Amino acid sequence: MNSSANPAELARAEIRALKPYASARALADSAGVLLNANENPWPPAGDSGLGLNRYPDPQPAALKSRLAEVYGVDESRLLITRGSDEGIDLLVRVFCRAGADRVLICPPCFGMYALSARVQNAEVIEVPLLEADGDWRLDLAAIGQAPPCRLYFLCSPNNPTGNLIEAETVLDLARRVAGHGLVVIDEAYIEFCDRPSLAGQVKDQPNLVVLRTLSKAYALAGCRIGAVIADGQVIDLLRRIIAPYPLPTPSVAAALAALAPEALARQEGQLATLAGLKSVLLEQLAAHPDVLAVWPGRANFVLARVADSGALMRAAMQAGIRLRDQSAQQGLNHCVRITIGSEAEMLALTEFLKDWHS
Known about the structure:
By secondary structure, the chain is an alpha/beta fold. Helix content is 35%, strand content 16%. α4 packs parallel to α5 and α10 packs parallel to α12.
């Protein structure tokens, strides 16, 4: 079997040979008399029936089943992680040999791709996005000319530019690098746009990996619940090095509640409200004399270039408003990222923008 059919062959040899640690809960479920995990037999004060004195299941069956249903994938292709960050870190540690393998990123983009690679001492190849006509796009010619990489990190909608990458572009890249690399598409913001996820394509493209999260549209940033969707053999390798108990019991309970049908219906209303508030903000930014450029993007934020980002950040801080300065990112001089908040939060921003001038 070649690497195109079996992406697990691209993993580090020592990970492929590794015998994973077997936790007490992995060896036996939480039924019966539990004398196998050195736990306190009594729940703590304020437990409220959660059973916090007991270790949680490493991959809770109910949550895994529900996520697989929501994402439209087989459970064998899904690993629940502590947010997308852990998924990124696991992929780099499994597939990149320190000092030998490369990771490709397309800045400006989420900083954890490069950070995780550098912690592993993997070389980072940067192929910057191209900006033209008010949008950003991949430099496909430069990606094609880059040296072979183990992991190709893409993000759609991209953070912080908000641009989408066409599905066929992602799949074509995955096909072209199948002999030596995996394409990892980060879909943290996919719920905010009308594009379907690529999760369903993993079964036909084994070297495609999709990252999902409950931190954004599902309002669970404080719970740290994400998912890696990948070929079953890739999932098996990631499970070998994931922490024994990565998912706190309260986070699992909150995730199941957030994925209930009534909660998903509520989410639809919230996403529509955010879209309306975003449209209002875009009008305000377009009319502001100190805003030089705006990239609306397709997520729950807007990227804007202003005359003086430092002055804007200082003035916003004094007004009690927290924005994200993106000036350190390649190509984003004097750019700030503005998250779309609640009606009250956006009203506060509106009042601030009326008075702010650099």
